[in-house]
């Protein structure tokens, strides 16, 4: 969902000793490859790679305008060049800063040299370490009950980066509540597209919440304009954050929830977590079972009323029809 793949090409030296103007290159946040020429502006984009040539040395910088750390992976092809690091090169870059990544320079300055590179980035940090002692709330209103239609290692789609995700079947525009507190790192709510085809994977609306241990909570397939929080906002476990929906790769209204850390610029690793319910604490949720959310602390004002449990006759597997 957050994978970004870009190809940018620079032919910077053909054997002369001429000085070239500073070259800035932009990685636009979209899912296709694009060649970017010198002098293009960043606009409203949240991630940018900038190159600055100083003599025979070309320095690479990452400008991260996201509200959260990002992890980027660089791959490079070159002729007659050395670098200050080995490739592929992966590193995590802080939010709202410009950070130097690496430099390249000629192996033999008297001969021509050139390079091309590809960069991928995704939100999150490779340094995150999950607090396994943390027990998560169910991601819906206190007292509400919903059925798990696909749990960990679900046969339909819970493998790879989604291995430890949970799908809850729920009607459109059901209130979604934070399973754990943190800072809202990223949101998407402009999509109305969805369906049982992989072509809709990038159309899912979502909220990403950065937890205090650096991991991210992912609440996906939300309703269009259904996000109730803002990027940078601090929220607590149990807070109302969104309305559920049926956007993205989905053929039935449901909520997809997972906790993950970033593996590299190309992907993430989901993390198994335990939940408290109205009747149990620290449990692993089981596919095909309905769970009721625990009550809140005395005196707390509820934002919404609980929803009834979905009917057992509905045949859904993680939002995709069996």
Task: Describe the protein.
It is a single chain. The chain has strands at residues 4-13, 24-26, 47-54, 57-64, 70-79, 81-83, 89-93, 97-106, 113-123, 135-136, 145-150, 166-169, 175-177, 182-188, 194-195, 205-210, 216-227, 234-235, 240-244, 248-249, 254-264, 267-270, 274-275, 290-292, 316-317, 320-321. With 322 residues, the chain is mainly β. The protein has 2 domains: 4-123, Immunoglobulin-like (Sandwich); 135-310, Glucose Permease (Domain IIA), CATH 2.70.70.10. A hairpin with a 2-residue loop joins strand 3 and strand 4 (57-64). The model is unreliable at 1-43 and 298-322 (pLDDT under 50).
Summarize the SSE layout with pairings.
Blueprint: E1 4-13, E2 24-26, E3 47-54, E4 57-64, E5 70-79, E6 81-83, E7 89-93, E8 97-106, E9 113-123, E10 135-136, E11 145-150, E12 166-169, E13 175-177, E14 182-188, E15 194-195, E16 205-210, E17 216-227, E18 234-235, E19 240-244, E20 248-249, E21 254-264, E22 267-270, E23 274-275, E24 290-292, E25 316-317, E26 320-321
Parallel strand pairs: 10-23, 15-20
Antiparallel strand pairs: 1-9, 2-3, 3-4, 4-8, 5-7, 5-9, 6-8, 11-12, 11-24, 12-21, 13-19, 14-16, 14-18, 16-17, 17-19, 17-21, 21-22, 25-26
């Amino acid at each position: 969902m957050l994978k970004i793949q870009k190809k940018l090409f620079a032919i910077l030296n053909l054997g002369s000793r001429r000085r070239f103007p500073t070259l800035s290159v932009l990685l636009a946040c979209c899912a296709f490859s694009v060649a970017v020429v010198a002098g293009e502006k960043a606009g409203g984009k949240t991630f940018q790679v900038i190159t600055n040539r100083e003599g025979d040395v070309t320095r690479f910088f990452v400008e991260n305008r996201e509200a959260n750390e990002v992890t980027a992976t660089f791959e490079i092809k070159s002729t007659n060049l050395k670098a200050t690091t080995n490739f592929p090169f992966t590193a995590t870059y802080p939010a709202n800063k410009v950070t130097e990544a690496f430099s390249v320079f000629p192996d033999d300055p008297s001969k021509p040299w050139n390079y091309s590179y590809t960069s991928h980035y995704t939100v999150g940090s490779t340094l995150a370490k999950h607090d396994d002692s943390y027990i998560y709330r169910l991601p819906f209103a206190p007292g509400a009950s919903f059925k798990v239609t696909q749990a960990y290692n679900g046969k339909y789609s819970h493998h790879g980066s989604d291995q430890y995700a949970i799908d809850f079947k729920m009607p459109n525009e059901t209130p979604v509540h934070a399973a754990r507190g943190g800072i809202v790192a990223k949101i998407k709510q402009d999509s109305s597209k969805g369906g049982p085809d992989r072509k809709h994977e990038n159309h899912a609306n979502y909220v990403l919440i950065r937890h205090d241990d650096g991991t991210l909570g992912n609440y996906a397939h939300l309703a269009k304009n259904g996000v109730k929080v803002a990027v940078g906002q601090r929220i607590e476990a149990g807070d109302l954050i969104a309305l559920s929906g049926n956007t993205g790769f989905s053929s039935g209204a449901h909520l997809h929830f997972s906790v993950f850390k970033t593996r590299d610029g190309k992907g993430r690793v989901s993390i198994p977590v335990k939940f408290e319910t109205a009747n149990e604490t620290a449990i692993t949720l089981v596919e095909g079972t309905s769970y009721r959310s625990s009550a809140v602390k005395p005196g707390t004002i509820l934002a919404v009323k609980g929803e009834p449990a979905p009917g057992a006759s509905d045949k859904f597997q993680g939002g995709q029809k069996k």
